[in-house]
């Protein structure tokens, strides 16, 4: 009996090991698949703006731009596409740092009105060049916050870029800043496609990309996971509400000093 019992125990130990090995190799396969998909998506994401920029440069060199107005329009389009590439490279860098557990925030005390005004200033223009209506904050509460302005700018820029991606022309993007429960709350709302209920639990997960029909571009699935890391490193929270077909509102909070 003793040896039968021992064999039974040994068998269940092996069985457990086998399950663990299978689980680990499945995880490994999934990670490798995600990495490969990431490279495909990055290549695609970079190829599109490069092709566009090159087409505009070619037109300029061929003398298609006869007047300053058209030239400025072309340069503006090239700038939008360059910004897109810059954001993508920044996301990739941040993702590597996140993997290494090294996303650093270097906060300092500053007044919310000044810093947010500076961050939001170019956004209205950016939204309007995408043929959408921009509704900025009425008044930004002026409180002392302890933040890394560069990182918070990355968060806002990611959220606005998502809103742009998922909102068809003639829609609108609204940004608001409020004081709520002793925190500063930044709200970015769009009138776009919304997020499907089945995608909602996963949007902050790395590499997750939701409904493919909702945006013309593919994306890398990194943006929101990076936003969450940055906001949580500041001691804040990030969340959203969304109604499929009606729009999405992302909001994050920052503690006051
Ligand atoms: P990416 O935009 O590269 O796909 P993100 O991490 O920024 O990655 O977003 C993850 C997913 O969340 C997106 O693929 C999309 O399905 C959904 N999503 C994010 N923001 C919005 C939004 N404003 N409207 C609709 N869906 C959104």
From TrEMBL:
The UniProt record lists the keyword Methyltransferase: no
Gene Ontology MF terms in the entry: kinase activity
Reaction(s) catalysed by this chain's protein: ATP + protein L-histidine = ADP + protein N-phospho-L-histidine
Segments forming domain Histidine kinase: 41-257
EC number per UniProt: 2.7.13.3
Keywords: ATP-binding, Kinase, Membrane, Nucleotide-binding, Phosphoprotein, Transferase, Transmembrane, Transmembrane helix, Two-component regulatory system
Designated name of the protein: histidine kinase
Lineage: Bacteria, Bacillati, Bacillota, Bacilli, Bacillales
């Amino acid at each position: 009996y003793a040896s039968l019992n021992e064999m039974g125990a040994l068998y269940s130990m092996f069985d457990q090991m086998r399950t663990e090995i299978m689980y680990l190799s499945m995880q490994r396969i999934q990670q490798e698949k995600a990495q490969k998909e990431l490279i495909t998506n990055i290549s695609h994401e970079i190829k599109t703006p490069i092709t566009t920029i090159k087409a505009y440069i070619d037109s300029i060199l061929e003398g298609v731009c006869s007047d300053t107005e058209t030239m400025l329009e072309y340069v503006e389009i090239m700038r939008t596409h360059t910004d897109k590439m810059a954001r993508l490279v920044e996301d990739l860098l941040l993702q590597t740092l996140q993997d290494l557990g090294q996303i650093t925030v270097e906060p300092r005390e500053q007044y919310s009105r000044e810093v947010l005004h500076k961050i939001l200033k170019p956004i209205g223009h950016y939204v309007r060049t995408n043929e959408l209506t921009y509704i900025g904050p009425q008044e930004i509460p002026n409180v002392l916050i302890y933040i890394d302005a560069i990182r918070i700018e990355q968060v806002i820029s990611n959220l606005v870029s998502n809103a742009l991606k998922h909102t068809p022309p003639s829609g609108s993007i609204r940004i608001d800043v409020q004081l709520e429960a002793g925190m500063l709350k930044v709200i970015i709302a769009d009138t776009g496609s919304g997020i499907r209920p089945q995608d909602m639990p996963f949007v902050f997960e790395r590499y997750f990309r939701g409904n493919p029909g909702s945006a013309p571009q593919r994306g890398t699935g990194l943006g929101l996971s990076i936003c969450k890391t940055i906001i949580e490193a500041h001691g804040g929270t990030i969340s959203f509400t969304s109604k499929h077909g009606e729009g999405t509102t992302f909001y994050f909070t920052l503690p006051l000093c």
